[in-house]
Amino acid sequence: MSIEMLTLLFFGTLLLFVFLGVPLTFVLGGVSVVFLYFTWGADAFYMVASQIWGTMESSTLVAIPLFVFMAMVLERTGVAKDLYHMMHLWWGGLRGGLAIGTLGICALFAAMCGISGAAVVAMGTIALPSMLERGYDKKLALGVINTGGGWGILIPPSILMILYSLITGVSVGQMFAAGVLPGLLLMVLTVLYIVVRCAFQPNLAPALPKEERGNMAEKMRALRAVILPILIVVMVLGSIIKGITTPTEAAAVGVFGSLLSAIVYRKLTLGLMREAALRTFKLTGMIMWILFAAHAFSAAYQSMGAQALIEGLMTSIPGGPWAIIISMMVIVFLLAMVLDPVGIMLITLPVFMPIVQSLGFDPIWFGILFVINMEIGYMTPPFGFNLFYLKGVAPPDVSMRDIYSSVIPFVIVEIIGLALIMMFPEIATYLPQALF
Known about the structure:
The chain is mostly helical. The chain has 23 helices and no strands.
């Protein structure tokens, strides 16, 4: 059978089972194993097993359950409530101040947790009702929480970055360092959008009345809320960047920080530990299956020789290397509208990475572009995870249509940020080169 027919049959089978509702991880792993057997025979399974064994020996893998456990504990400590109170006092006097402060809290949560849903749920529960009560435009308030919540996978530590590193072989520490400046850039662009829009449409986000802003003594007391989160961020990121710990060791330090936070907030109970451990166990089990599927897919794809076909098709795109990178970004952007980020990584990275490296582009830089696209996918209709997280905690009068329409201007801001990082790769590559 020709390579063209094999490729068509392979991807056609994948799509059929995905549309039938079978979980993507099992579709990729199962279909890949079947195709491996019929193209190379039973001996091909040794190739998959050896690749998986190599991954299982990686100490980086230990960081995943540790960061997940850290996020599960922090989600229940009450940190978000105190942070919002502090931000309410300090930023509430500005037009759009509550929205800007909410973005700041989302960025802090991203730097503590490494997953997307934590900030969306926390701010959807605390900040959204507060903004709506004070006359904020519904779509502006929803869009801010959706956008800020997505930064959990870009601002390190990030579970998705660890998976990207495991699949592509790049350094986790370099990926973490590369995510810092792009994360700050997206935050600055979003804040600028809010400031400019509120200057022209002040009714969208009115400043709080003077009696709600608090006096200087109250503001200074409220600042204590940021001490613990900043301490955790410094413990995790600072130790990696300074070379004191590996990402895995830093994850253990982060778990210690989250438990310390739970003690300070008097939330450390046997029930909290049990629930956090069970959720961590479930998520880690899912990630192990994801890695199996990634290796099976990669082995099947390479054994069929389909990679050479795809490379040939991609390199024939007119416009040279940059046109190829832009085409990849468009493909990932469209996939992010309908598939989960991990699934997209499994499908695209084994195909894209050899092309990216053969064209001479930095895989760390490409990884940041990829992760930003995944982040946009979290907030993009119809199946963005953040949209459904937010609907689950939003007041009853907030419809799914409100949430869908709220993200449009914020997606445009994110795409502008993505374009800037493409035009100026140093935004992503400066810190990794300087620190490593």
